[in-house]
């Protein structure tokens, strides 16, 4: 399962707890820098490949595919992903032809619930982005790396996050 998450420097606000009678305060600022975090997960083992790529679209996807090929160098690797334009560009299709052990599998349009990594992104945003203000891009990247390390140490948690219950989707 593969996908990318667009992360902005200003925190997204989400529901949070506070002491009775006290209003929570979340520091924000008007920074609109954006980074792209790419991720892939092997749902049976919980092994992850995550990394910041310099650019979205085909350029970032090609960087991420190289990462996937390094993390899983043997056997057949099926990359389950959505139909984003960066996933289907001519250069990406050419990359897949040059690396036959890595094969694309495109999900139907408008079906993010079929890609388990979407729930991992939701957890990531809850842990790292929602209600968190990072001083700069480097601090955001460090927080993201800490999150990745936490997940890498707990593959059972990753498997729970990315599990897709197809029976509930089809009913």
How would you characterize this protein structure?
The protein is α+β, with helices and mostly antiparallel strands. It contains six helices and five strands. The strands form two sheets. A three-stranded antiparallel β-sheet has the order 1-2-3, with helices on both faces. Strand 4 (77-81), helix 2 (90-98) and strand 5 (102-106) form a beta-alpha-beta unit. The mean pLDDT is 83.
Condensed summary:
With 171 residues, the chain is an alpha+beta fold. The chain contains 6 helices and 5 strands, in the order βββαβαβαααα. The protein is globular, with a radius of gyration of 17 Å.
The CATH architecture comes to: 2-Layer Sandwich
Structural class: alpha+beta
Number of domains: 1
CATH class term: Alpha Beta
Q: Can you count the helices? A: 6
Number of strands: 5
What do we call the CATH topology? Nucleotidyltransferase, domain 5
CATH superfamily: Ribonuclease H-like superfamily/Ribonuclease H
Shape: globular
Along the chain, the helix and strand elements come as EEEHEHEHHHH
Helical content band: 25-40%
How far apart lie the N and C ends? 22 Å
Rg, rounded, reads 17 Å
Largest sheet, spatial ordering of strands: 1-2-3
* Average residue pLDDT: 83
